[in-house]
Structure formats: structure tokens, C-alpha cells
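From the shared-data thread, chain only:
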Amino acid sequence: MSNNEDNQSGQSLLELMIAMGIFIVVIASTMFLTLDAQMANQSGGQRTRAAALAQEGIEASKSLAARGWKYLTVGTHGVSAATNVWQYNGTVDSMGIFSRTVTVAGVNRDVSGTIVTSGGTLDPDTKFVTSRVAWSPQPNRPSEVVVNSYFTNWKSRRWAQTLQSEFDAGTKNQVVTTAAAGGEVVLGQSQTSVFYDFTFDTPTDYTYDTNKIEVASSQASLINQSPPVSGDTTNPGLDTTQIPWQYVDWSQGGTDVNVTGTRVTSGGNPGAYASLNIPRGRNSQVGGYFQQSFTVTAASLDIANVSFDFSTTAFNGTPTTLQAYVFVDNASGAPTIGTEVWSSGPITGTSGWNSFGPIDILSKLPAAGTYYLKLAVWVEIGGTRAGAFAVGYDNALLHWEKTGTPSYPADKPTINPKISFSSTDISAWQSFTETAVKNGGEIYYQLSDDNGSTWQYWSGSAWATAGAGNYNTAADINAHFTAFPVTAQQLSFRAFLSSDGTQLVSLDNVRVTYLVSGASGYFLAGDFISSAYNTGSHETVGNYLTWTAAVPAGTKIFFQVRSAATQAALASAAWVGPNGTPASYFDTAGQTLPDFTYAQWWQYRAFFTSPGTDTPVLSDVTINYEP
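Structure, as C-alpha cells:
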């Protein structure tokens, strides 16, 4: 082979290698571009999904804000629609590779109302919501989508009190209003008065006739002398024992047949039952019965009935007659056919369990006393043998009751503290008031300054020693209380609860106020109850309670609210704090209001405490709501 041929062969091999290299590069580039396109498509789909989830977090927040601004709570949340409504749930929610957080933040504005990122004043009606969705399309390559939105409570309404005239419309207890700064509420000066409450929280603190007066639930009340009474027979289903049912023979001239009564442990309706058993025989007239005694404690009952289940469990041959009876008698012993409250009629075969009643038996219980419920069977067999027979009773219950007409003591029973109220700094008595429910009755009083050794009343011109029939109403006592002797620096009262017999009279509280000798500074505690406010809508949502107050060291101010559908209902509604219970209090301005079923009418109550040397100062109160 010539050199020329060798060169051509080598050149061909080189060209082949170059061509193969180019082919590999082209193929690799094509594969890379294809994979990159696939990854790009996948990443784009994930980002689209993430964007939708982020926007969903914003829409969920819009839904919460639409239900009530207070539900748009500051913090970091997950969102959930598990109850078919959007709600914040936990701090994050996960959907496959995606995790989502929704952060709600407060917004500050400057004096011109412009939103600022630092400084300014918090605007409670604007919030900034950030919905963030994060995922990792590839290891160590995290991605996220963030959507932001400002929310404004355009439905926001405010009930604000800031003027002295507005505060003056409320109820003040050891607090006063001033004209400072347009209107403020502060603790009063302690030299004005101090009060002491006689409450009925502890029955043993009082002397009274327990047969006529009951001290319970922080009230002293007349006792109903004719309360509702009722009664039942016992062990109707003979579930674990036969007691107190007793089997008794009822025989009138039998020959070779004796009825027996037994408790059968199964086969009843359900479980155990009472069985009356008649063996096979002839020429017999026999019976038997289960009886149970019971006591009725009232006459002229309103309800009395009996109910039971009955079954014929064995029937063989043909008796002359076989009947079951239920009697209610006023004496033990053999019953009399014709006086029964129920009869089966002639039994002609077996039967399953059937229920009877309630059967009215009022005529059988005319007066208080002891009676007997009897479950009986009577059989007559002629000259042809027949039997055995068996009948059963289960769930036999007699019930009676008397609702009665309320009847209260009408002889003015009394109640008085065992120990007088006393204080060494009393300079003068000021007022005497009661909290009571009288229902047309009345409560009368006598006073004592020697722990009940001597009782006094206002005679019309002076305080005088009282006889049994000398007493005054709380209004009379109050009108002349400042003249009651203060030398002993103690006080007790005796209350006469007066009813015509149909009126429930109860006493909740007796309050005495007095001036303190040489006192100075502020009251240690007081409270202010606002006037009532009408939002105009039953469907009002309360958002938050805020206020402005100066609170010097050692003093404190806190709040409760109440709400109702009507102004009348508002007066008896419970005072509650942010968790909706009377045990909680608003102690930080801006706390969220609890949910109320109907919230058209509102009131707030401010509590003041002090060491006596200073007072908190309340300048304004605002309830934010959406009608």
C-alpha cells in the first residue's frame, strides 16, 4: 500500500471521529434543552399553583374581615375552611410540597393620615396582610410567592364617650366626673363616704328560722311551704332483686292447684320479670298476686297513673276462665274483683309482651297515706284438667305528683346578722339601701347598735326601742339614717320578710354608707357604668374596646362589657370580659370584644383601684363595632 493510501485511510478515520463528536454534542444539547424545557414547565406550573394559594390566603382574609373585623387577628396564621367558612388555624397550613402562612400586621399613620413604616399612631381600622407560599422545586433551591394587601374596615362604627356630659349620664359608685380635658372619670375623695355590704353568701353568718327562710345563692328568701311533691313505686323491672315486691296467695276454694309467684331472670321486656304460675289441675278457683306498698304524702293529687308490660307465657288446655288484673288498694290483702284499674279480659292463649298505660288512677289515691299496687292473676278450672298457665308482669310503675300552689309564710319571719358591722372610724351614718325582690310583698327593718340586744325603729320623730310590731321600710330607714346613733360605731339590722302567702320575697343585699372620721385621699375602689347605647341592629358585631387613661403607679383601671337585644334585657345581662365570662376583664386597650347572640344595646363598666394616695384618670372610652 502506498503512503498516499495510508494518509487517506487516517484522514477518513479522523473525519469519522469528528463527525461522531459533533453528533454526540448535538444529541446532548438536544437532550439538555428538552430536560430544561420540561423542568421549566414543571417549575412554571408550581409557581402558578403557589401564586393561586397565596392569593387564596388573601381571599380567606377578606372573608374573615367581612364576617367581622375582629376576626382579622394580628399574628401569623394558617388558614382552613374545614367548617365551610374560612378561619385562621394554627400558624401554617400545608398542601403537598407547598406551605402557606398568612401574616396580619397593624398599620401606623402619621398626623396627616399617611401610612408610615415607623413612628405614627396605630390605626385599628387598617391592617396589612401578607400571604406567603414556599416550596422547594429541587433540593436546596427554595422558592416562594408573596402577595400583600392592605385591608380597611370601611364598615367601622364607633361609640365613643369623652365629654363630661356623656360620663354624667352613667352610674357612679365612689367615682366622680370632672370637666378636666373636656371630661374625665376619677375615684372620689374618701372623705365623702364608704359603704359596707351585708351579703347573704354564708348562711351561718345569720340567725333565722330555717323552716321559713332559706339562705342560698346569695339570697335570703321565704320558703315555699307547699312545694311540688311526687313519688314512684320502686324496682319496676325486678332487674336485680324481687324486693320490695312480695308474692301473696289469693285462693278461694281450690282443690289441687296452688298459684306461685317467682322472679324470672330472663325473658322479660327485657331482662327479669314477675311470673305468676298456675300448675295443671281441675276443680279449682285460685289466684295470686305480687304487691308493693307505697306512700303518698299529699292529698288532692294532680297526676296519678300506672303503667306496665304484660305477657301470657304459658297456656295449656282450656280453663273456665283465666284473667289478669291490676289493683290499687288502700290495704294489704286479697283484692276484690270489680275494683281493679285494669283487666286483661279472658285469656285464650299465649301472647308476647304488650305495654299498657299510663292508666289514670287519681280516684284510687284520694288522700295522703299508704297504698298497695297489686299485679294479680285469677283462674277457674272445671272438672277437666287444664294447665299449666303462666302470666308475667314487667316494668310495673305507679307514679303520682302534686304540683301545688306556692304558699309562703305570712307571719313576717325575720333574719339578722349574728355579728354587727363595726369600724372605729365611723363619724356619721349616711345611707341605708336594700336590693330585694318583693313581688308585691315588703321587707321591714329594725336597727341595733348593740349587736341585737336592743332593736330600734323610727317612731316618726326619733329612734326608739322597738316592740315586736314596730319596724320601718328601707326607704323610711334611709330617710332618717343620719340621725341613728353612731357612738357605738357598729350596726346590725333585723329584716322582716312580709308576704300575703302568695308572694315570694327575697333579700339580696343591704348596703350602709357612712362618713369616715379624719379620712383623706381617694377611695380604694370604685366603678363607673356607662349609659346604654343602641347600635340600631340586632346583627351588630363588636370588634374591640379601647380607652385613654392615665394610670399612676399602684393604681389600676379595667373593664367589662355587656350586650343584649333590647334595653330592658340589657339591665340584667351579665358583665363579661374578652373571653365572654364574668371572670375575665379587659385590662389592655384594643382587646377584642367577645361574640354576643344579639348585640344591639351595649354598656361598659370601668373598675378603678387605688392605694388611696392617687387615682387612675379615664379620659375616653370607645367601642368599635359593625352594624
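DSSP finds four helices and 43 strands in the chain.
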